[in-house]
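Why this split exists: single-chain examples teach little about how molecules sit against one another. For that reason, every record in the complexes split bundles all components of an assembly together and asks for one structure covering all of them. Below is a record exactly as it appears in the raw files.
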Amino acid sequence: MRFNRGRRYTYYSSYSNSRRSRVRWDRVGIIAGIVIVILALAIWLNFDRLQLLVKGYSFSQQNIILSLEDEAVDEVLSHDKLDHIQDWIEGEGTYFLYDDYEKYLSTHKDLKIEEVLVTVNDIMTNYKPRFDALTYTEDQLWKVLDVASIDDLKYLINHEYTYPQIEPYMNIQGFAIQDIDRYIEIYNEKKNYNYAVLATAYPFIISENDNGEIYTIQNPENVVTLVKKGFQYANNYVPDDLVTPAEIPISPDCENAQMRKEAAEALTEMYNDAKKEGYTLIINSAYRSYKEQEEVYKEIHERYDEVTAASLVANPGASEHQSGLGIDLTSQSVLDDKRNGISSRFGDKPEYKWCLANSYKYGYILRFEEDKANITGIGNEPWHFRYVGKDVAKEIFQNGWTLEEYCLYNGVIPKVKKNG
Ligand code: ZN
């Protein structure tokens, strides 16, 4: 063994010694060559150029940057690659603002290069010192610049709004800087940031403030969607899960008893529990298409004056019946009265009182209450219930809210696109 190992050692060492010395001299030659080339390049290129190369600047960009004064080159080197560096240099921008031009352009992509240069120069010279005085940090100022016009900046400065004063409103749908006075006014009354922004941006949510604006709902399938004049369905929206609740009786006048599946199941549960108490609920009207609503709308508007008609029937697209979540109820007792030639109303019946006290447990709310018509825009409709899901219905019931108030306080409004 020892002999073998010794032999092997001797053999390998003498073999590799001769090979290794040959290879090593070759490699030293190559490495020395490379080092000489790199040194030569480094001297020729200089260290700044190497750094620019590493940051990803092209050869022509490097040339333009290296033609600047040393401080400007250092400034460029202190940032990640500025994609539009050539524009900022050729547009005679201020070198310590190169990074700001780039940042501003990234959130104002529709601006021309020249406009970016002029605007950022203006902001940094004339406005930034004022914001510094109002204790805005760099980061906070940029959050404002992302959404603000020059007029907005003037507004903030003139009103001396600090960042903590405006920050709670900034991420709410419909936020606009020059409405902050109004937000604060509403906030002082309602103590709620969502309410302040939404009631300002979409005043028609409170129907008495209707301003004629109309938005089309982009997420119509959401069961909490607020639909009313102003927030409306597209004329081709049809829920894709309509079913007819099999167990619940349907009134002879009802043409379509279809509802969204979730709402139909909840109503069936409600129907069965009411039945146990001796109350028989009946479906009087459920899903109505845009076209059907249009027909009802025309008919009512031919019969009544504008104001009365508007309180009686929703605009096409603005009806909860198109959602498959709104339901008009009646009761066996009302139908029995009718058969006996007696005129009676669901709203006067114990079935209604049971629904009023219990529907929230099944996810339903009474949608149009008599004393809330200024908010909902619809007169007293004791028969019309709306499915919103159990949690939301409970919160609305416990607070004595309308759906509008729930949406305003919780910042829950549809995703919308303005018409026209
Ligand atoms: Zn109805």
